[in-house]
Amino acid sequence: MSTHIAAEPGQIAPIVLFPGDPLRAKWIAENFLDDATLYSETRGMLGFTGTWEGHRVSVQGSGMGQPSMAIYATELFTEYDVQTIVRVGSCGALAEHLSVRDIIIANGACTDSGINRVRFSGLDYAPVADFALLRAAVEASETMSLDAAVHVGLLFSSDQFYSTRPELTEPFVAHGALGVEMETSGLYTLAASYGRRALSICTVSDHIVTGEETTAQEREQTFGDMIEIALRAATA
């Protein structure tokens, strides 16, 4: 039983979907998993296990930001032997050609966080997705009838939601960053450290350039295409 998840051994599946919002975790469990049961509500960070098309799958809230995410990912990898984590989150669009509700499958992540600088003694590490998961997600998206466009590219994982220096993202956009969120860089690094698989799939919830945005309820309950892509990829 881990400190922050507090599930019993065997309650968590080898495959975990990983939203930041615990209420999105609940919505995923109720709408996509069969026979879902609650295994944790410690600190309000809900976790559920059920099945999807015969595959045992868990969904665990991670909280916002790399420090919170890292606590839950580390415990999932080390205490519950989770093999695959797919982040299913929201992001802000940085590139003008993206639209709200578009989906980004992240092949890698840039960051302004100092976490990896500490880990790698000031050197720069390139956090990337598991290629098999990445390929499976792209292939799954190509077989689905989707209203929104799917993009494969870089995310920018920021330590600040309300940035005091928004101009600092401009060089990253010029070098291909599509969206900004707060977790992917850390998740990819931890997966590499423990020899596990990780992928981030994010739906654009707001556009940094145009100002368009979705509501909190829409972010919690209407990003179903992203969830299906994640489930298909993780169980392929």
Description of the structure:
This protein is α/β, with parallel strands linked by helices and 236 residues long. The chain has a single domain (15-234), classed as Nucleoside phosphorylase domain (Rossmann fold, 3-Layer(aba) Sandwich). It is 32% helix and 28% strand. The chain has eight helices and nine strands. The protein has helices at 22-32, 66-79, 115-119, 131-143, 170-174, 184-194, 216-221, 224-234; strands at 15-18, 34-40, 47-52, 55-60, 84-93, 103-111, 150-157, 177-181, 197-207. A five-stranded mixed barrel has the order 5-8-7-6-9. The longest helix is centred in the first third of the chain and has 14 residues, at 66-79. The two termini are 29 Å apart. The model has no long low-confidence stretch (mean pLDDT 95).
Shape: globular
Q: Tell me about the largest β-sheet.
A: 5 strands, mixed, barrel
CATH class: Alpha Beta
Number of strands: 9
Examine the coordinates and then state which fold CATH places here, giving the name of the CATH topology: Rossmann fold
Task: Please mark out the parts with pLDDT under 50 across 5 or more consecutive residues, or reply none.
Answer: none
How would you classify the helix and strand content by structural class? alpha/beta
Helix/strand order = EHEEEHEEHHEHEHEHH
* Residues in β-strands, percent: 25-35%
Determine Rg (CA atoms, Å): 16 Å
CATH homologous group name: Nucleoside phosphorylase domain
Distance between the termini: 29 Å
Instruction: Please state the average pLDDT score.
Output: 95
Helix content: 25-40%
CATH architectural group: 3-Layer(aba) Sandwich
- Output the strand order for the largest sheet: 5-8-7-6-9
